[in-house]
User: What shape does this take?
Amino acid sequence: MTNIFDCSQTNLQRAADVIKQGGLVAFPTETVYGLGADVYNAKAVANIFAAKGRPAFNPLISHIAEPDTFSELAETDERALALAKQFWPGPLTFVVRRKNLSPALDLVCAGLKTMTIRMPDHPIALALIKRAGVPIAAPSANRSQSISPTTARHVFESLGNKVDMILDGGACTVGVESTIIDLTTPQTVMLRAGGLAKETLEDFLGEKIILSHGNPDMPSSPGQMLKHYAPQLPMRINVTPAEKRPQEFYIGFGSMDGNLNLSKSGDLIEAAANLFAFMHLAEEQTEYPGIAMAPIPETGLGLAINDRIRRASYR
Ligand code: TXA
Ligand code: MG
Assistant: This one.
């Protein structure tokens, strides 16, 4: 018996009740599965940190289901509203100044005067938030420093019964976490490359976006910590088939084929969607002591893929 539930109306309502009563629900989004709690319930939010084994100073993303909630929670200017209108629901998260300074939100925001907000593009996530009647705080639904989950089974394997319910909405279509941009300064800064390409944002804004690599010791976005997305096995990146060691499990890309191939046609969107699931599969192989991955182009979603695998390969 697992705590994985299908997304029937009854189960959705049960999940919303769990959130209202201060419990934890893992739910699908288009990026990765989230581990959700009521943003206004500090005890529930603390349980997220405990379940993940995550340092409690990491602020969490507040997920909303109606665009209007954005301006209720945060200071929104023209740029923020235009970006939200264009890209929400979708894999884009904003760092904005808090308008709601209620102490109930302090834990979600890790005491900061800024917060992160996103409207996910997934019917189950949106229905859950609406039924719960509150924004839902949700980091990825996995133990801290392990690979983010893109299926309900990944969540169960990582968190087991530490979560009250896991809603199964199938595999995530985007497969990497949302892009995070900081809107608290006049110049837009990207804190985390993710499911929405930097070029797409730049085209819309008509300006270049600064990519912040942050300070790994003092991350403003702890996703910037060097060893953050780590498989159990040592992993080498930018490895061509010729450079692959005989004992390595090889994850290929395009014409560089291997035990698995992120995208035979070299499609970076397909590669992002496969990335975490393939890393899970690779680390489950008992006969291989290590993983090697083919070079990935540094354009479009390749930025997010390279960011995640650089961290995964960090030792
Ligand atoms: O795709 C996603 O974004 C997924 C799904 C579930 O929505 N969520 C996710 O959350 O990746 P999480 O907690 O794993 O990553 C949130 C990142 C963290 O690196 C956190 O440090 C950063 O956002 N963050 C949160 N609030 C912040 C703030 N006020 N200023 C700077 N960074 C912040
Ligand atoms: Mg995470």
